[in-house]
Predict the structure.
Amino acid sequence: MALVTVWIHLKTLSQQTILVGVIALWIGERATRVVMILRRNIGGDLTKAEVEALPGDALRVTLRIARPWTFLPGQHIYLYMPSIGMWTSHPFSLAWSEAEQDLSAEKGLPMDRHEVLSMQKSTMSLIIRRRTGFTDKLWKKAEKSPEGRFVSSAIVEGPYGSQNLESYGHVMLFAAGVGITHAVPHVRSLCASYANGTSATRRVVLVWIIQSPEHLEWIRPWMTSILNMDKRRDVLKILLFVTRPRSTKEIHSPSASVQMFPGKPDVGALIDQEQVKQVGAMAVSVCGTGSLGDDVRRAVRERSEKTSIDFMEENFSW
Amino acid sequence: MNSASLYFAIFITTVTAAGSSGEMEMSPSEIENHRISWYLGYVWAATIGALLLHRLWLAGIRHVRTLACLENEKQQYFVVPGSKYAKIKRHILDAPLFSKRHNREFRLSTAVNVGTLPGRLQTMYLVGYVAMNIAFCVISIDWSGPSKELASEVRNRTGVLAVMNMLPLFLLAGRNNPLISLLDISFDTYNLIHRQIGRIVVFEALAHTLAWMVNTVNTKGWAIVGKSMASSQLIMTGTIVSFGTRRILHSLEANLCERLPALSCQSCSCLHLHCVMHTTKPSFMYTSCLQLWHWSLSGSI
């Protein structure tokens, strides 16, 4: 509306041409969204979302996208669920992808490796923390459904963004709460590339800060598959910090490479420990609350002149 | 998909920033306005160019580092930082505005969040952009000339700049902004710049409106102010946009500190519309249509 009014205002003036550009940019952005949505969500089966309620006020949403893309760590999407949020779109990080055999194709048994790969359709998953508005409605619907899960149609706009940490010899990923959704794909991809010898990464340290051990359920199946990966003991170390444990019995370290501690971490001390045995350039990434981000940022900046450290922050802020 | 939209965006922006020139006789101040529009375009191009170079340089380093370390278990060469770049990262690139606070929100209570502080480099860029706009609004204007010419020059200059700034305003507004993937800068940062440019556009439009009013009041009197708003298409649409964009600013401002100037603009504009209505005594139908148009502006983004 404002554009129309300015257009009329400039009827006699040469600056009206500038407005052509403005309008073109606006239309271009909206059109790109529509094209992306049509391209990804229409074809064969329409996109479906399976929503499952998790302990600790969270949801796991597994998306079966009509025409999926190649999953890369760091990607995020905008989710539309017309049955819950009408036309509104909501940004979420993609936390996991799983390749499934697409049995609906009528090609018979696959004859070679190419055919096996082409029959696979990937599903992608999100973890959503229940807050207010859309996430609250979604959670309530899942909780009321049988077995705490339901399937709904959905529209996925994406993928947006991706991040490659394979050039760093040493990677530290800090995550708080649902921020783990950003870290998990990196852990999987870096462990895989270590095993394949396709990256510089030799050490991956995941620090996850959670309020209670029940939040571990959010990513349990994915963590199990990561912990079963080839050669992961040589590269991966996981530190879990439980800030509000209900008893000391809840805190137990399953193994040397996965350790659990009560309370909040001393971010500076953790980075110091890694810096002492740093391999190559280090990347420190943080995804979580603003104050954790600020703490990690300060800790990295204080140490960034001693060894090579790059800081990356993923935030939900404006 | 993204490279196509990038080329399209650049093409559209440069072609239209040129405006239509050369066909008609232009007065010296019009020529100056055109030149300043081009300067603004050059600044955008230079910013994008510099950021692109930086990004390509980093990408090159990372690629070489990956290849060099494929068979290298200790990678000691890459542990040692380049001291100049490490200092730049510490004090400028990664630095929060003051000593610590960046993404931890300022909360008046658990429910009310009034925003975050931008980082140091982001703040430097935003301050620079605002200063540049102020500079462009005031250079090459004959401040000692007669007030009629002065006011009309200021009116023209601020109007041109407000419209020019709408180009980056709309480009940086959306999630499919091609500069996100080109420069490897997140949508959140562009949103910060978009909001700042929005404030700049609103204030330039306000200055534009005031300059026009000063001129009209001095030469023809207050009655003509209201009459033009009601009857001249140029002035009516201008009034609507001027008020409407101020309302948008007010309704979108999350940060309390920025709400106060927007609120004062908003109250001035409401008072003003009220005065206009009184001096011209237009029909009820007309007033309500105007009001509806005005309210709908703030609802549509």
The longest helix of chain A spans residues 16-41. Chain A touches chain B through 64 residues (CB under 8 Å).
